[in-house]
Amino acid sequence: MYRTHTCGELRMENIGQQIQLSGWVQKTRNFGELLFLDLRDRYGVTQLVFNMEANDFLAERAKRLGREFVIQCEGKVVERSNKNPKMPTGDIEIIVNDFRILSESKTPPFTIENDTDGGEDLRMQYRYLDLRREEVQEKIKMRAKVSIETRKYLDGLGFLDIETPCLIKSTPEGARDFIVPSRISPGQFYALPQSPQTFKQLLMVSGFDKYYQIVRCFRDEDLRADRQPEFTQIDCEMSFVEQEDILNTFEGLIKHVFKTVKNIDLPSFPRMTYDEAMQKYGSDKPDIRFGMEFVEMNDIAKGKGFSVFDNAELVVGINAENAAEYTRKQLDELTDFVKRPQIGATGLIYLRYNTDGSLKSSVDKFFNEDDLKQWASKSNMKPGDLLLVLCGKTDKVRKQMNELRLEMGNRLDLRKKGEFKCLWVLDFPLLEYDEASNRWFAMHHPFTSPKKEDIQLLYTDPGKIRADAYDLAINGVEVGGGSIRIHDKTLQAKMFERLGFTDEEAQKQFGFLMNAFEFGAPPHGGLAFGFDRLCAVLGGVDSIRDYIAFPKNNSGRDVMLDSPSTVSDEQLKELNIKVTL
Amino acid sequence: MYRTHTCGELRMENIGQQIQLSGWVQKTRNFGELLFLDLRDRYGVTQLVFNMEANDFLAERAKRLGREFVIQCEGKVVERSNKNPKMPTGDIEIIVNDFRILSESKTPPFTIENDTDGGEDLRMQYRYLDLRREEVQEKIKMRAKVSIETRKYLDGLGFLDIETPCLIKSTPEGARDFIVPSRISPGQFYALPQSPQTFKQLLMVSGFDKYYQIVRCFRDEDLRADRQPEFTQIDCEMSFVEQEDILNTFEGLIKHVFKTVKNIDLPSFPRMTYDEAMQKYGSDKPDIRFGMEFVEMNDIAKGKGFSVFDNAELVVGINAENAAEYTRKQLDELTDFVKRPQIGATGLIYLRYNTDGSLKSSVDKFFNEDDLKQWASKSNMKPGDLLLVLCGKTDKVRKQMNELRLEMGNRLDLRKKGEFKCLWVLDFPLLEYDEASNRWFAMHHPFTSPKKEDIQLLYTDPGKIRADAYDLAINGVEVGGGSIRIHDKTLQAKMFERLGFTDEEAQKQFGFLMNAFEFGAPPHGGLAFGFDRLCAVLGGVDSIRDYIAFPKNNSGRDVMLDSPSTVSDEQLKELNIKVTL
After folding, report:
1. Whether ipTM exceeds 0.90
2. B residues 116-175 closer than 8 Å to A (CB)
């Protein structure tokens, strides 16, 4: 036996007990006569005491213990004279009778503390040591909690956890596949799944009715910051349901997770159409922790001789409350911000509503006080507020204003950690047009059902067709999305045609699904959450990487394993492939 | 809304209610005036009734419904005059007011019945239809139940579900890896994990203490019957534990699963050493649903002038109770059975203990009645029993006798479905010698800890070293196994040396794990269950394939997807590889 208790367990009621603990030496504090040692395990930290007077031999041995040594000790629980209310075990300490070293440690390359001295690269190389740090452990523990609570909730509703294969078939549509050479079928390849989309639809055709899986997915994309080549999805599908059933079911899931993991009772999630989200926030995943909704100003800003506005398709403002005191320098920063190439605005107009009631804008030349009063009134400005205005082509200026709004949200501290605002965004467009390839693409995927009332637009105005598709945004982050699927083979065939597939192409890529639809497909729909992303949002953190035990870096490398790596010529030969470098 | 109830839900207490159901047309029975239709969904079957007299238009429409059409219907629950006690809904039926077709179906290529007319190949090609059959659905449902109950049990004990990567590094040791070309690192490859072994050990080094994962594993092996290139493991690891802790924890898991999934209370699992299992059953995974233990007969069978016995290392028998009446033909069959090349015995000796008390053997020439009485007595034979005897080299003859024992178990119906006998097999050998490559191999894997008292044999008699390694066998099937791991870097280095690794090789393949052990590794150990296999055993079935929603065939092909398949030249070019056929 290595321990009677964990290092996070002992309390006042254990006083007087002989116990055994095992764990890592977090740190030692040597006061000559007394040596204090913090022993750490997953469950917490307990203070050990060695007394030179009582047992100098043992205390001398203890002094030689280095950081991160693993020891097993035996001792008596006593009340601390100097209690530490910050530690759950802070009321007690252990007078050690004896200990043994289970495993020595070299000095770690960085300190195993929340506030570590190790840089990102070093910590990734020694990820197994990074994972010892409490704040990283807590993230991995929270992920496990989200996982089991998700499962309990869905299992409780009758969802079946059904595993779908990882070695599947490559389909050119969508992102790039990772492929896996087959040895037994020379010259042929499996692909790793980008998602189990077609399998979950097949399971509905099979009649499983409610399916879920927490499943690994793979995309060989050019990695942007915070993208991983492998990632995890909470993948769900239901039969004989309408959109409303799905929204309610998964709103329930998210509420359950917030309640059980964070003890937060979320109110009903508001809903907004895609069009409204774009108009009010310039984003299909608005952060609604704060208002600052877009104010469209064409009617009051145009026709006053300011050609920049007059030539713009849309003049739009946001009212940054209590920001009228912004300095010249701060306003210049904002102008620089919107002019960055990633955002691409040509300039920024402002209107201050000073606390003395006066109005001051950067375009006073063109607008008189009455004009500016109209601006202020339409934007619901109060004295002390600052109106920021952009103009240009509608789609572009909305995106620019979205960035500016989020930036102002950050600067004014309106995007509070610990506050969570969920939002369903509904009625996404079914198709988007790609200028480059001169064709329509499915915005979601080619199985997404158009809204019944919009199907007639398929050949007249495809861009206007709305889909039964929905996303869940939390605090401005898209954590999940899904749709009602097409279950009618005729409509599905039309959709493939509209997307420019020939019959053969459609058959080659999605033949097994289209064939399945010939044998009685139920109405169905579903949704998938980005599990890594959901965990990061719950943790109030932007990066998903710390919620993954062994993540890859931005080049898709695992620096701890040093992978990918070369393989032997025999391996390649057996697989009938050759590197062409 | 598509339904108010499922097809498995309605009972006497629903009589009089107006309800809606949706599902698949299982079959129709047309009695002229009345049409009965069985409507099926995941939850059951409900009988619908159409009455020509009451609504001929509706009934005529219903007559045109084909098998596997998906319909939604509305009607009234009434009591059946002709109740069907075999169906949970057999007390009621639905007088249909109206229905609509949600989806038509072509005639399926085989009947959607437990007793289907579809052959294996056809069913695999249309797996989504095969999965509609009740017996297949039940297997997939049972698997989901085993999964969630496993998770609940382990989560309840504080195990953390931690995901490990799928894109890892290829290590030549062990079975063949599937590899994945990297586009971003040209000429380099990821490998898919054969198991998360090293990762779970790293997680212990990180201090996670209790880990589990239900995880996909990959092995590019030459596929024997009932092997899949991708399979699922329940993978577990614990720190600060001894073998006893692990056995108790996972005995608890298996008991929990049997109780919750099959409502079976399993008694404590017996334990047996590897040596004892080999001696008594010739197998490291004996089926102990029946006795028929080996009787070693050297002392009574040798030295009587029968050179076959005299020249054999081991003469061994099994007592097949109540089989003395076996005919000549049956005995010949058994002789043919043991002589098959896969088994390889040269002959089979028998002794009948006839019900009249007389003894009759196939070697009467060499053994007198007293000799044979000794045989009977040592084998605990009663009148009516049959002793079957093999002889040869110890290891070989034990394996042969194991096959014969299992065959006799089958023939005598001693391997009862529905009966479950679990057995821990302990103290596996650490190493096995490979004559071909003239070196020692780790029987389990190179991280397995030798028993403390056997370490001294490392350079004197390595074959005798026992490991802290254990397997769980249920009904003669190995469902899981594991070991205490080496956590001492010096011992680990010795082990690699003994296995013939140079320092560089060891460093190259397992460097990250050996490095991790430099920083304070806790004592740890674990175990992995073959999840597909465990489900098959729980289901009382030999084949794992039906417990996998989308399995591959014996050539590693998914015939539904037609995968693996060729990929485009552009894909290969982007990956810097070329097919060399």
Report:
1. yes
2. 126-129, 131-132, 137, 140-141, 143-144, 147-148, 151-152, 155, 160-170, 172
